[in-house]
Amino acid sequence: MTTSGKTKILISIIAVLLVVNLGMLIFFLSKHQPSTGMHEQKPRYSLTAVLEKEVGFDKQQLDQFEQMRDKHHQQIKPLFDSLRIAKDRFYVLLNQPRVSDSTLKAAARKIGERQEILDLQVFQQFRELKSLCREEQLPKFDSVLNRIVKRISFPHKKGGGGYPEDSIKDKTNSHNHP
Predict the structure, then answer these.
(1) Domain boundaries along the sequence of the chain
(2) C-alpha distance from residue 46 to each of 27, 66, 144 (Å)
């Protein structure tokens, strides 16, 4: 390749890099500008707002909920940390050339045990939250709780999740009936 050909390639590469850098600069600067309303981000999901607007919690109930929420966060954070560590230890086994089935199953079992503890704690916390409801609020709370559970169970589903009940029934029935 001639010197002029190499020069043209280098100039082209520099031009492309310059355009990409300018594009990134514009992107990052525009991200920090206040939005004009066209592409407003949805407000973050707030259980406090839902309890107030949809269930009808009053000020006293909201105060109790916020105290409860703070206490629950302190209790549950170590459980999430423990679950994350168990999963990290499980997947780090991929770095080993050979892993026995018993080692793999033991690591998976630890994940399950930690998940069980976490789910039982969350269940108890929802039960405690439900105890704050007055009788007339219970149906609304149950409806909200169903949406929360779907969001927790199937976070990847658009619109707050949903249960793939038919596929679960089909799999269950196929195991029971040849």
Answers:
(1) 47-155
(2) 29, 12, 12
- pTM listed for this prediction: 0.60
Cβ pair 80, 104 in contact under 8 A = no
Question: Is 70 in contact with 91 (CB distance < 8 Å)?
Answer: no
Report domain 47-155's class: mainly alpha
**What is the number of residues in the chain?**
178
Contacts 24+ apart (CB under 8 A), 40-44: none
pLDDT digits (tens, 9 = 90+) for 106-148: 999 999 999 999 999 999 999 999 999 999 999 999 998 988 8
**Distance between CA atoms of residues 132 and 147, nearest Å:** 19
Residue ranges with strand state E in 58-155: none
Per-residue CA distances from 119 to 11, 87, 124 (Å): 59, 16, 9
Q: In this structure, what DSSP letter does residue 41 have?
A: P
Contact predicate 93/110, CB 8 Å: no
